[in-house]
Design brief:
The chain has six helices and ten strands. It is of the alpha/beta class. An eight-stranded mixed β-sheet has the order 2-1-3-4-10-9-8-6, sandwiched between helices. The protein starts with a strand and ends with a helix.
Amino acid sequence: MNKTALVIRHLHFEDLGTLEPLLAQRGYAVRYLDPAVDAMPLAQAAAPELVVVLGGPIGAFDDDAYPFLEGELALVRARLASGRPLLGICLGAQLIARACGAPVYPMGVKEIGFAPLALMPESENSPLALLGDCPVLHWHGDQFDIPPGAVRLAATATCPNQAFALGKQVLGLQFHLEADAARIERWLLGHACELGQAGIAPSALREAAQAAQARLAAGSSAVFSAWLDQAETA
């Protein structure tokens, strides 16, 4: 019998990326939900073997502008209470942080581009240690504080809190480890206005994606495989 991965997706092109084929290899059936139009299955929050909350261009506290966030946040809280595997990426990690009582707020600058992480000593025995100096995709203007009880795993010079773990079953990533660099064109088109406002040339990101593609795909597979190994058996 297949396992189920419930995936909350805010933008069509910001999908599971390189994580999707890995989940398929591990026997997961992926079910995408769009929180802007789909009801959040709160009563079933504990049922899937995995829940993933992906990124998006809004803030984790933008409830007034985007009321659907209330239902999404309720699902995240219910999933946390279940103690079952939960992965948050970018906005998803920010929502996990908020659900745990940690602040999420604007950085005042945009961090967009491919760059490696500074791994904390605490990450030595975590799946993130497998990344080494592999460049990852950063694309955000907000940041989270590390939730109470969580372990800080990574940083950059622009954003000091890039990843956290709550035990072995909850992982929050500010960066886009899942992003498929081979399909970066969809990101460049979908976020064209943001790139223009930030003064970032699509050609520069395109070249960086091509340079990072092979290493990022390998690093993503290694990290997510290791995390799933521990999350599924914890």
